[in-house]
Write a structure and sequence with these properties.
By secondary structure, the chain is of the alpha+beta class. It has one domain: Mog1/PsbP, alpha/beta/alpha sandwich (Protein Transport Mog1p, Chain A, 3-Layer(aba) Sandwich). The protein has 3 helices and 10 strands. The chain is elongated.
């Protein structure tokens, strides 16, 4: 018994191409939407200092009394990638030494954090001038990276950028797991570069 072949009409072929076209357009729209979402930012402005920041859309912001701004990436691993900014009003009668500020901060962190170790310090300055900014890189162990579930301790890498801008001493902090740090460092430096200091 032979089966009769169904003849494909011109309309069938057009329908096939239409399906291919719709799928291609949907994929392109999905890619464009994803790219837009990943590249979009939200604005934070502090009325007291005049500091203005742009941070990735979808990050969760929360900050206690000890910081000016903090945002975390909810899509990162067990330890949430974090940006944090602190600001201290300066007393013109008592100039600060950035090196001393960073050294004191390192001593305080060593007291509070498990297995804290300062890895390196890099000063930014004009020749013959005191530092205008300091990068400090460090590592520590976070014993409970996710307080809502049981998890192993996480090795956290930190990077601080400390500088005087106007009447304030600012410290920008990046905290990330080892796996996330290298990529996060590039975005963090762009985050600092985009900051605006009006105060």
């Amino acid at each position: 018994m032979t089966m009769a072949k169904t003849a494909r009409t011109q309309r069938d072929r057009w329908a096939d191409w239409l399906v291919v076209g719709v799928v291609a357009v949907a994929l392109l729209l999905g890619w464009a939407t994803k790219s837009w979402a990943e590249g979009s930012t939200e604005q934070f402005t502090d009325p007291e200092t005049g500091l203005s920041l742009k941070y990735p859309t979808g990050w969760l912001t929360s900050c206690g009394k000890d910081c000016l701004f903090q945002a975390r990436d909810p899509q990162s691993g067990t330890f949430k990638l974090t940006y944090r900014v602190t600001a201290d009003k300066l007393d013109p009668a008592h100039p600060v030494s950035l090196v001393d500020v960073v050294n004191v901060a390192s001593v305080n962190q060593a007291r509070k954090l498990t297995a804290f170790r300062l890895l390196d310090i890099e000063t930014v300055s004009e020749e013959g001038q005191p530092p205008s900014a300091i990068w400090a890189r460090y590592v520590y162990v976070e014993e409970k990276p996710d307080p809502f579930r049981e998890s192993l301790p996480a090795v956290v890498l930190g990077l601080d950028y400390t500088a005087v801008k106007g009447e304030h001493l600012y410290t920008f902090t990046l905290l990330a797991s080892e796996a996330d740090f290298e990529e996060a460092e590039k975005d963090f430096k762009a985050f600092i570069k985009d900051a605006r200091f009006e105060g």
